[in-house]
Design a protein that fits this description.
Radius of gyration: 28 Å
Number of strands: 11
CATH class of the domain at 163-264: Alpha Beta
Number of helices: 12
Shape: elongated
CATH topology of the domain at 163-264: D-Maltodextrin-Binding Protein, domain 2
Largest sheet: 9 strands, mixed
Order of helices and strands: HHHEEHEHHEHEEHEHEHEHEEH
Length: 302
């Protein structure tokens, strides 16, 4: 047999509210109307949905199982409503952005602020994400444009380099390394190193720098991101190698020094390979390019 949408709605209301009276309030109808429709639904199903004990309703095992599927349906309905609202908003403008955390702490917020000054009617959503969820957002078209510091390798995404920055060393004020204008990996060995797991992108880059210098990387405090490393260095937890973007966003909290044989990271705009950028996304990309340039991260001309 089939249940119609009204029967499903009433059943869900009773399950959610826990009573006939509560369901009636949720649906703005009378209690007798809820009772009649619920009784009719049970007759059509051929089994009871609720046990009535001392005036209270208790869902049967069948009702609980049915409710799980009903919730799946309602989740789908909510997603349709959200999409409909979003499509409506796009008439006046909505832009979804994602980025790597390192450039999401300063460069992207600065660009969004500048963009909003010339596009005040546009709604902007922004999420700093790690590479896997960021890539998924772009592939599923839940984000219009991404900005990452490690180029995407996915065949369905295209990327364009718009800026770059190096890995640098950071340490607290008053540190013995402060009297040096350029550091080497060897200079770092006597001090507690705040660094990353070997299997992470930043961990692999820093590990490579130590190996190329002929030294073993010994991690005193392991963190998940350069931003976390900046926070720990600021607190006096040690020294760290971080990207310039993260160091720039926390400028003034610690000393920053270049390091010999550093690694260079590019700022890449990433988008779907099969769908052109909207005019809003193109406008934001131009603003971001200008922000990258004014903040000193432009790609040097050859």
């Amino acid at each position: 047999m089939q249940l119609n949408l009204r029967q499903i709605e009433v059943f869900r209301a009773v399950m959610t509210a826990g009573s006939i009276s509560g369901a009636a309030k949720l649906l703005f109808v009378s209690q007798p109307a809820i009772s009649r429709l619920l009784s009719h639904t049970e007759q059509r199903l051929g089994f009871g949905l609720f046990e009535r004990v001392k005036g209270r309703l208790y869902p049967t095992p069948e009702a609980r199982q049915l409710f799980k599927e009903v919730e799946v349906v309602y989740d789908g309905v909510r997603r349709v409503e959200e999409l409909a609202n979003e499509l409506s908003e796009k008439r006046s403008g909505i832009l979804h952005l994602v980025s790597s955390p390192s450039i999401g702490h300063m460069l992207i917020p600065m660009a969004i602020t500048a963009f909003h000054q010339t596009h005040p009617e546009v709604k902007v959503t922004f999420q700093p994400l790690t590479v896997v969820p960021l890539t998924q957002m772009l592939l599923e078209r839940r984000a219009d444009l991404g900005a990452v510091i490690l180029p995407s390798q996915h065949p369905n995404l295209s990327s364009e380099s718009i800026g770059q920055g190096n890995l640098v060393v950071i340490f607290p004020y008053g540190h013995p390394l402060a009297n040096r204008s350029m550091l080497t990996i060897k200079d770092l060995l006597p001090y507690a190193l705040v660094s990353y797991r070997s299997e992470t992108p930043f961990g692999m880059l820093v590990e490579q720098m130590f190996q190329e210098a002929g030294h073993v990387r010994r991690v005193a405090i392991e963190v998940s991101s350069p931003h976390n490393a900046c926070t720990l260095v600021k607190a006096g937890g040690g020294i760290a190698i971080v990207d310039e973007f993260s160091a720039h966003s926390a400028a003034g909290d610690f000393v920053v020094r270049p390091i010999a044989h550093t690694k260079t990271l590019a700022i890449n705009l990433v988008q779907s390979r099969f769908e052109p950028l909207s005019q809003l996304a193109q406008d934001f990309a131009r603003v971001l390019r200008e922000t990258v340039k004014t903040q000193g991260f432009a790609i040097p001309e050859k």
